[in-house]
Specification:
Order of helices and strands: EHEEEEEEEEEEE
CATH architecture: Sandwich
CATH class: Mainly Beta
Helix content: under 10%
Number of strands: 12
Largest sheet: 7 strands, antiparallel
Strand order of the largest sheet: 1-9-6-11-4-3-2
Distance between the termini: 43 Å
Shape: globular
């Protein structure tokens, strides 16, 4: 592909990465019944996003540079069109993520076990369309930022500024 907009591929590579991390401090804990207890890091809100999205920072502070995090979108959560300065890699663990792009033929629904690559500066929107929360791993090749499409900017409520 000359200009891949979205890469859908086997999850073998990511599964190997996750299984290889079993001895690292960010390892996925086995036998825990509650998804929110999967990692030892606390759930924190994304300051860049509307309420309803939380993350566990697994590797590096996302505002400081390349990062790896575990993300939860509540059921029905939607982000309007936006883009990031860095490439985003998403591995969906649970739920359905609906992704929209400027090119309608690139629209996809990513289910559990799907790996998605979103190129830097690629305008997209995301919605959790499952009945339950969407849980996914997010790897950013650089500092995590959000640039909203003009007219769709997110403004924080006054009490959280």
């Amino acid at each position: 592909m000359r200009h891949p907009e979205l890469l859908w591929c086997s999850t073998v590579a990511l599964a190997l990465l996750i299984s290889a991390s079993a001895t690292s401090p960010i390892a996925v804990s086995a036998g825990l019944p509650n998804q929110s207890s999967r990692h030892s890091q606390p759930w924190v809100a994304f300051p860049e996003l509307p309420p309803g999205a939380t993350r566990q920072e697994l590797y590096v502070d996302p505002s400081a540079g390349p990062a790896f995090m575990y993300v939860r979108f509540i059921a029905g959560y939607a982000l309007p069109y936006h883009w990031h300065s860095a490439t985003q890699r998403i591995y969906v663990e649970e739920g359905l993520l609906e992704l929209h792009f400027q090119n309608p033929t690139a629209e996809r629904t990513a289910q559990a076990g799907t790996l998605v690559l979103i190129s830097r500066r690629r305008l997209h929107s995301v919605r959790c369309t499952s009945a339950g929360d969407c849980l996914f791993y997010l790897s950013s090749s650089g500092r995590f930022d959000v640039h909203w499409r003009p007219g769709q900017e997110f403004s924080k409520p006054l009490e959280s500024q």
